[in-house]
Amino acid sequence: MMARVSSAPSSSPDPRERPIGVFDSGVGGLTVLHELLVQLPHEDFLYLGDTARFPYGERSPEQLAQFSAEIAEELLRRRTKLLVVACNSATAAALPSLRRRMLETTLGVDVLGVVRPEASQAVASTRTGRIGLLATPTTVQSGAYEQAVHAIDAHVTLYAVACPGLAAIIQAGEQFDQRAVQAVREACEPLREADVDTVILGCTHYPLIRPMLQRMLGPQVELISSGAALARQVEHALSTRSLGNPRKGEGDYRFLCTGDTQTFTDLGTRFLQMPLGDVERVQLAAVEAVA
Is the domain 4-113+228-281 a CATH 3.40.50.1860 member? Predict the structure, then answer.
């Protein structure tokens, strides 16, 4: 069942009827939103793509903490009840500071990211204890996946490969040209040599090249993406806080971006695999991240 596209903000006094805020550096997080729309059809969603500052994958942790704080303030101003960081780089670099900010400056809005659900799913999936990670340089350098994986099982080995520029290639719609094929082949080669049996797709853009990755890694390798696992975590968080929307029918979904709205619409339709409707351009207010 497809959710309804809406352009009207929520004004309901009932917190259960407020939207779930989702954000990413661009349109890659729409692969996560797609799973949320499928798994939580009764909920409303508000998605913000920071396309003016895309890509995040080679930004500093300090920059990502500030960007995430600015986006969170905008989504909270629009009365969201839960925040989902649908960006691996932002989750890896900024999730702890963003959670502290929400505890200190709001009434305790939960913040969920993509790293932990993927790590849990990968550890459950591996048979050999050899897990690969494909991600942006910022995500790899953060060590967030190593920490998450080893917190679950200290005996698992993680082989991380940074893929500079790959998210930008995919976002530009060039994921099937020769440059993309070569970038993917070079990224997969060390994982094949390490004989991993499970690979985490540590960027929300990467599911769009899943068939290419599967071919190059081999059919025996399990590919882990964040959408479905994160959707289950969101559902659990809503249930724990009694924040699930009580409606019986479809929810709405709306879109904000910081860059060109037409470009967002053209790219976003391909990532979401659903109609986008109107996209509103926003100017984010500068705020300081909580240290």
Answer: yes
